[in-house]
Amino acid sequence: MRVTEKDVAYVADLGNLELSAEERTRMVRDLNSILGYIDSLNELDTTNVQPMAQVSDRYGVDQSKQGSERFAYASREDIHEGLRKSLPHDVALQNAPDADGTFFKVPKVIER
Amino acid sequence: MNLGSLTIDGARSAVQERKTSAVALAESHYAKIESDDPKIGAFLTLSKERAMVQAAKMDALAAKGEKLPPLGGVPVGIKDVMVTKGVRTTAGSKILGEFIPPYDCTAVARLETAGAVVLGKLNCDEFAMGSSNENSAWKPVRNPHDLTRVPGGSSGGSAAAVAADMAVATLGSDTGGSIRQPASFCGVVGLMPTYGRVSRYGLIAFASSLDHIGPLTRTVKDAAIVLRTIAGRDPMDSTSAEVPVPDFVAELEKPVRGLKIGVAKEYLGEGLDAEVRTAIEAAIQKLARQGCEIVEVSLPHTKYAIPTYYIVATAEASSNLARFDGVRYGYRAKDARTLSEMYRRSRDQGFGAEVKRRIMLGTYALSAGYYDAYYLKAQKVRTLLTRDFEEAFKKVDAIVGPTSPTAAFKLGEKVDDPLAMYLADIYTVTADLAGIPGISVPCGETREKLPIGLQILGRHFDESTILRVAQASEKAA
Known about the structure:
A: mainly alpha, Histone, subunit A, B: alpha/beta, Amidase signature (AS) enzymes, eleven-stranded mixed β-sheet, 16 helices, 11 strands
C-alpha cells in the first residue's frame, strides 16, 4: 500500500475536501488500485523525452526562437476595453449564494 | 412526421418549403420528449421559451420567402456542460444545481446564429467525468436500444437524444472519448474535432488541454454541417486555432479511392469483444472494396494511454474544479462557521464520488514529492503517444479501428470498479492526448441488436478526410 489513510487526509486537505470516514477508506482502496495501474508508465525510459503539457507544445511552437518568443503564437496585444463588456454588478452577483448587493459575502476568514 | 429520419437538410428544407413550420417541428420534438424521455433520461432542462422565439423567427423568414440559414429551424440539444444564457446549466452536478449562466457558450451561439432551435440541456456524467452516464448527479441515461444498458458517457444524453428521435443533432464534449464512445453505444455519428478547431468559450472546463466540443448526429453529412457551423477562431478562447475552416460538406464529395487507411494492430488485440472485432473487420473490407488501400500500422505505446490520461486529466481537473468554492456561484453548505470549513463542506456535499476521486488523484499527482513521478512522467509519455501518431500518419491518411472494446454494457456493471470503467475508453483517449480528430460511425450490431461503432482517426486539422472515410463506411453499411 503506497497511499495510506494519512496521505488521503493530507491530499483531501490540499484539495479542500473533508471526506467522511467511509469515503476515506474507499479512497485509500481506489487510489492504490489506480496508482498501481499507473505504475506501468515506469516501464518506459523517458530520460530524453520532452514533456508535453498541451497539443500546441508540439504544433504552435516556433522551434527556431528562444525563450518566450517560442510561444508567440499564444500571445496577443492587450485589449483595454476587453473583448466583451464586463458583466454588470447585479448580473455578476445573481448566482452568489450570499451577497449584499455590492460584495460576495463569506463566513469569517480569520480563525482563532 | 417520422422524426427519426430527419436530417439537418431534411428539417431545414421542410421549414423552408413550408411543409411544416419550425414551431411545429419543435413542438413535435417536445411531445416526443414528454412521452419517451421519462424512460430514457436524456434531458435535464428544457428551454421552451428560447426555442419557440427562435423557431418563430425562422418561420417568419420562411414566410417572407427568405433563404434560411444552414440550420434554420433544426431542433438541437446541448450537453449540460455548455453554458446557456438564462437557461439552467448544471454540468450534471449538484454543486451547480441552481446555476443560471449570464452568457452563452460560443458553440451554442454559433448554432443559433445558423438558425438552430435549442430544445434544452442534455444529461451527462458529472463534469463530463465518466463512461456510462451513471455519474450524473440527477439521473442515469438509458440506452434507447436496450433500456437495461448504459448509453455510454460522458455525453450519454447527447447520444441518446439523437438515437431516440428527441433531437436532430446535439453537441457533446470529448476529453477522453466522451463524444465517440456514447455515439458508438447508441448507434449515431459522433465527431471530435482537432484540438483548437472549435472554441471552448463557455464550456465548463474539465481538463483544459484535452477538452473538445463536437457534434452527435444521425449522418456523417450532418456532423460536417454542424462542424462547419461551430468551427473557427474565437477571440474569447486563446486556444482556438487560427486555421482556415474548409467547407467540410463540399469536401465529402471527394472520392475515397486511393486513400491509405491504417489498421493499428494494437487496436485489435486482447480485450476486444469478438462480435465487435468481426464488425470492424467487415467495415475495413468494405473500405478496401471502395478502393482504399489498407496498410498495417503500429501505435506501440497504446497500452500506456489510459494511465497517462488518468494522470493528465485528473491533474488538470483538480485545478479547474478549485473554482467551485461556494463563493461566487454554486452550492454553499449551510452550517459552516469559517471560510475554510465552508469551502470543504460545500465541496464535500456538492461533488459526487467520481469527481472527488479524480480531484484526489489529480491533487496527489501534483503534490510535492510526486509531481516528477506522476505528472511529469505522464507528460513525457504523452509525447511518445503523440509521436506514434506522427509516425503512422507519414504512411497513412487515416487510422480505423473499434471505438470501444465492447458494445453498450449493463447499468451497474462497472459502477464499483473505477479501473474497469476507465478501460472503456482504451481506444479513444489517445486521440485526445495527441489532439488529433476522431469520428465514430455505426458499422453494424451485435446479435443482441446493440450498435457497434467504427472509429476513424486523422491528422491534425484534417477532419475532411475522416469525414469522407466515415461517409464511405456509412454508405456501405
